[in-house]
User: Fold MobA/MobL protein from gut metagenome.
Amino acid sequence: MKTASVRLPSGRYKTHKVDLTGWNDKGNALLWRKAWADISNAYLERAGSPERIDHRSNAERGIDELPTVHMGVAACQMEKKGIATEK
Assistant:
């Protein structure tokens, strides 16, 4: 992000942020995930592993399965102690 200043007709300045990297663009995230899957799969193949990584969502792959919920360290420790958590 870069901040740009614009001079208003009143003589005052107004600033706004300009995105120069595209980090928040969903299209870029999809490209990066595909690139990661391609590179990972090349290494898996080279290592002789039959497993592959797919960057697409379950819905895009036609899998009718809910995604798993990530449970953090604190929640895992609580579960081990027998304390029920929301996840």
